[in-house]
Amino acid sequence: MLLPSKKDLKTALDVFAVFQWCLSALLITTTVIVVNLYLVVFTPYWPVTVLILTWLAFDWKTPQQGGRRFTFVRHWRLWKHYSDYFPLKLLKTHDICPSRNYILVCHPHGILANGWFGHFSTEASGFSKIFPGITPYILTLGAFFWVPFLREYVMSTGACSVSQSSIDFLLTHKGTGNMVIVVAGGLAECRYSLPGSSTLVLKNRSGFVRMALQHGVALIPTYAFGETDLYDQHIFTPGGFVNRFQKWFQSMVHIYPCAFYGRGFTKNSWGLLPYSRPVTTIVGEPLPMPKIENPSQEIVAKYHTLYIDALRKLFDQHKTKFGISETQELEII
């Protein structure tokens, strides 16, 4: 009888770690809905559902007030398997002083932001060792905090809701050494996430600059080389029925429904898991910002331009190390 080798077991654990993360939101949400419907409709235990909803209402603002992280969750061995699957690598170009606060801006979003989760919501990449004294707070969609149990899972990794009130709280009520992490392009950037792409949705995204100015905190440009290589995407004929539906859907809910695909449980199969391709994230030099409580649009535009220049410089300095042509540039739309 042939037993699986240590390498086979390691590969299986790596795949499972990514699988559970990619589908956790769907699985937990489905389970919560089905179980609570069953309790209400078919059993006398409906008070359990009432208690859950009461707690949800009582705890509603926690994701906007620093969340509820659990250090042991960030250190789960499972996340090391998650990181090894790709693998993920986090590199800094400058030291970060823990006596200040920062807004770290991530590019590109990719399809599922796999790299950003691995680096900043877990310790798999060694964040605390690379940036001692710094506490990361990755900001994500508020919808993740609407579902009981899912919100606890998400918050346990240090994630908070992406909103102005959340950023204000983290930069004013948590002392120093805090790093607020935003993915500037958001879901709008998913449609441009194709292997080899360097297109960023950033031209009209200046809210993070305004927040940095209002709080007088430095912006840190960060680029993940390889994030857009984790999935392929089917591009439908421009003007066709499906393409028109995609644009209509985006106009209604501000989310572009991408027809993305990757690999399955085995290396050469088709599925919705990301490809196991390396992602290296370069954290750039902090860009200091003056403190201006009510910055004008002209001031915001000025520092937005300075930020884009710093991001281009970071990209150009490192792109050839990751197989990108010297002539390829960031496309800002």
UniProtKB/TrEMBL annotation:
Keywords: Acyltransferase, Endoplasmic reticulum, Lipid biosynthesis, Lipid metabolism, Membrane, Transferase, Transmembrane, Transmembrane helix. One of its GO terms (biological process) is monoacylglycerol biosynthetic process. It comes from the Eukaryota. The chain crosses the membrane at residues 12-38, 44-60. It is an enzyme of class 2 (transferase). One of its GO terms (molecular function) is retinol O-fatty-acyltransferase activity. GO terms for cellular component: endoplasmic reticulum membrane. It is found in: Endoplasmic reticulum membrane. It is a multi-pass membrane protein. Its main location: endoplasmic reticulum. Coiled coil: none annotated. Its EC number is 2.3.1.-. Pfam families: DAGAT (PF03982). Belongs to the diacylglycerol acyltransferase family. This is Acyltransferase. It comes from Pongo abelii. The lineage of its organism: Eukaryota, Metazoa, Chordata, Craniata, Vertebrata. The gene is AWAT2.
